Amino acid sequence: MSTAIVWFRRDLRLADHPALHAAAAAHDRIVALYVHAPEEEGQGAPGAAGRWWLHHSLAALDASLRARGGQLTVVAGSSLDALRALIAATGAEAVYLNRIYEPHLVRRDAKVRKALEAEGIAVQSFNGSLWSEPDAIVTKQGGPYKVFTPFWRVLRTHVEDRAPWEVPRLSLYPVSDDLPGLVPIDSLALLPTLDWAKGFAEWTPGERGARGMLELFADDALAHYTEGRDLPARHGTSRLSPHLHWGEISPIQIAAFLRERAAKRRNGADPEPFLRQLGWREFSQYLLYHFPTTTRKNFNPAFDAFRWARRDAHALRRWKEGRTGIPIVDAGMRELWATGWMHNRVRMLVASLLTKNLRQHWTLGERWFRDTLVDADLANNVMGWQWVAGSGADAAPYFRIFNPVSQSEKFDPDGAYIRRWVPELADAPGRLVHAPWEDPAFLKASGYPLPLVDLKTSREAALTAYRNLRHAPAETAGEPAA
Asked: 1-127 has which fold?
């Protein structure tokens, strides 16, 4: 009887799972394995919010496998050691996996493949997370794209390359507590020790939760996505990002479902604007694959000479706590702490305040997001921060410094989002919900803090620093403290 191991990683689903699909077609029995080895992931290892999600997603996958007569074999430690032990215990002759394109894991997977193949074990890997392999899209000169629009023109031709696969017929390795190294999910200690994540209860990690979120988006927000996605007080975005990061749903599944739903409903809902946003996710993965040092270095090397301000621990703490005195920024940071998520428009505003008005190094914000976002994806997070800071690919120009007051007036005109997350301003009249410092008496009575920084003065200082960028010697560039 032929046995294969399917090594689950950030593909915690059964449907549209290329590695599982191939293994089930070629072998009599499947061993489902998850190895918890965060030390092998480098900067891509999950932060506190991500670990919360991972705990519940693993439990959901295990429940799905148990319903089919099997289990998720969970092991903590070295991936190669875990695979070797399981191969010896089950007689598996092959390992199947879906690829991850982050630098540390590309190198780790290559070492595992080389070692196992030297021992006579077949290793097969597949693309289970993207519409196209990162090295399959190149410019006419043969190099990688650095600008999104031409990249998207090519990628868009790959979106319908295949239909999503259903869950295959599975014959799973019998449930056994005698498998080597098997540990319960609870023993991984992924859940926070503080009562911090109680607000995360609005999420439903796992494949079923991903499908439910997709259906809600298709029914509720897709028809108004173009204008609704910029309004933080509305359910105007998909909120699929954590499900995508953990591979509980694939972009192929999403595109197929939205096309089918739009065709059936005929309500004018056009999935194209949303598919383009998924294209940005893929562009981030593509850039990280081709430029792996961008997790810690500026994509644009000219920014190595940018004069960042000295690290300001006080300002950074107030930014993290949502006490900057800038309402839309504080609303976003408090939403993040409470729910593990932040609206994308607001992400740009909080990042702009930190990197431009406060001129704190983009890596400081990236680290905080990495620890507190349930959808903290290394590529998306790094590229998003670099885009706002101006140092990334296809980046916002240096003179684009968001004015958080005008932005909140435009995208949260009645202050509903601010009032929800900044209760001190719940009763603020009119414009004061966006700029409470304009009425000192109200500000004092509300207990809300004065602005951490003067928006106009700090904007001018940032513009000066950006204009002088080409004239600053690289050795003066400010580096954040570790």
From this structure: Rossmann fold (3.40.50)
Count of CB atoms situated within 10 Å of the CB of 442: 16
Confidence grade of residue 476 (pLDDT, cut at 50, 70, 90) = very low
d(CA 201, CA 283): 31
Give residue for tokens 């009763």. 427
Domain 295-476, second-level architecture: Orthogonal Bundle (1.10)
pLDDT digits (tens, 9 = 90+) for 402-435: 999 999 999 999 999 999 999 999 999 999 999 9
Give residues with Cβ within 8 angstroms of 354, minimum separation 6.
Answer: 316, 319, 360, 362, 364, 365
Mean pLDDT over 364-382 rounds to: 97
Enumerate the CATH 1.10.579.10 domain ranges in the chain, comma separated: 295-476
Residue 232 dihedral angles phi and psi, to the nearest 5°: -70, -20
Give one word for 403, left, alpha or beta, with left for phi > 0 and alpha for psi -120 to 50.
beta
Distance between CA 187 and CA 338 in Å, rounded?
Answer: 25
Spacing of C-alpha 348 from chain mean position: 14
CB 50 within 8 A of CB 40: no
Q: What is the pTM of this model?
A: 0.94
Running DSSP on this structure, what letter comes out for residue 182?
B
- Domain 129-163+208-290 sits in CATH at 1.25.40.80
Instruction: Give 354's DSSP letter.
Output: I
CB-based burial of residue 465 (10 Å sphere; 0-12 exposed, 13-18 middle, 19+ buried)? Answer: middle
Which residue in this structure is represented by tokens 């092959």? Answer: 94
